[in-house]
Amino acid sequence: MCLPDQNQPHFLSLSLSLSLSPSLFSSSPFMDMPDTQQHHSHLHLQSKFQSESSSNNSKRRKHRQEQEHVLIAGLPDHIAQLCLSSVNPSLLFSISHSWRRLIYSPSFPPFFSLYAILSPSKSHSFIEFHTFDPISHTWRILPRHPHLHHLLLRHPSFLSRNLSVQSVSAAGRLILLAATTHNLSPALPRPLIFHPLSGTWSFGPMLAAPRRWCALGVLGPAVYVASGIGAHFSIHVARSLEKWDVRSPNGDVWEKKTDLKDGRFSREAIDAVGWRQKLCMVNVKGDAAKEGAVYDVAEDAWKDMPEGMLYGWRGPVAAMEEEVMYVVDEAKGVLRRYLAEEDAWEEILENKRLKGAEQLAAEKGKLCVVSTSGISVVDVAVSPPRIIPVLLPEGFEPVAVHVLPRTPVGH
User: Compositional bias (Low complexity) spans (predicted)?
Assistant: First the structure.
């Protein structure tokens, strides 16, 4: 509770003294004045006290506001922030309003949040980008970009399947690279980039050939796009591999790399999984017979995928910190981890929420799975691993999910 300043008169006590103590007036010169003058003098005195009261109330309000913005009493804010930056943001959120404001400010180290591409359940005609705050457990829609209106998820010519919307996260950015327009043409002539820390969109470098149904992957700050189909099929596009270094000062161009041996990887929208300085990918999804290929970044060369890795690739795959590879068997709902030394997949858990898995993201010991059940987070850093459902905004279904730094409140 904020107490009144002891050096200032308290308006309530002064009012009571004036109304109950005649001695205060008996020695006052006001008593010798005519009644009219006494009345005006009394009004003047009231006005004076009201003015002092208003001033005191303003001072108390200012004091309370200053107290609410103090991070740690007795410490300058920049020192207090250094102390608080090492505390779990979820604890800061629940303890103090000033600390809650701090964790969402641009100056506080950003915690990680989910970024999801969502589509209305009853109408798959458009997509929206949302972010989920794991601290407050709330969803926020991201600013829309005009180019998003041109992206199509469903078309009358493809009643049994969704059209692909391909995206990756790289260097702390969400990058949308391939999608389809209403006339079934490639929707993006260059990448569309969302910057979480500023809450803004920008464009990447022009693609030599805009495409759909390509292989898209990330290694470090570099984005790779392989194969795909443009407005019409081209064997040159279907065999191509290009690299874009997001952080490079000269990162406004795509760098051509060694071509694939054939165009068989242009059948579907697939993930090129960055793992131990290699890109690993297969040409079709699910349990169907498939071919695998591995691109070695250091050698700029394509190699055959190890037999055991290919055999267990039965659903979406992601690599934690580009070191440990995981797969979700979309038919059985089983999560497995790849053991490179044995060229085999080790079962971790089975859960019905993982059945029908369509996409997988890995970050900070957590796996985020998009499936027919929605979005689930699997914590593989604990033993046994635990699975946490994420409640989606009402009326929406997930298309893809990524893990990126949170967007400051106000963007």
Answer: 46-57
Same domain, 64 and 182: no
3-class SS at 293?
strand
Cα–Cα distance list, 124 to 96, 109, 179, 235, 268 (Å): 41, 36, 14, 31, 19
The answer to whether residue 80 is domain-embedded is no
Q: What is the Cα–Cα distance from 252 to 32, expressed in whole angstroms?
A: 89
Burial zone of 405 (CB within 10 Å; 0-12 exposed, 13-18 middle, 19+ buried): middle
Single pTM value for the model: 0.79
* Nearest C-alpha neighbor of 198 from the set 110, 273, 266: 110
Q: Is 141 found in the same domain as 55?
A: no
Domain range for 51 is: 11-69
* CATH code, domain with 147: 2.120.10.80
Tokens 């959120």 correspond to 93
The tens-digit pLDDT sequence of the chain (411 residues) is 333 333 333 222 222 232 323 332 233 333 333 344 444 444 444 554 455 555 555 545 544 444 456 788 878 887 887 888 888 888 888 888 888 888 888 888 888 999 999 998 876 667 899 999 999 899 999 998 888 877 877 766 665 567 889 999 999 999 999 998 888 889 999 999 999 999 999 999 999 999 999 999 999 999 999 999 998 999 999 999 999 999 987 768 999 999 999 999 998 899 999 999 999 999 998 878 899 999 999 999 999 999 999 999 999 999 999 999 999 999 999 999 999 999 999 999 999 999 999 999 999 999 999 999 999 999 999 999 999 999 999 999 999 999 999 887 755
- Between CA 322 and CA 262 the distance in angstroms is 26
Cα pseudo-dihedral 29, 35, 38, 44, rounded to 10: -170
Token pair in block for residue 239: 């065999």
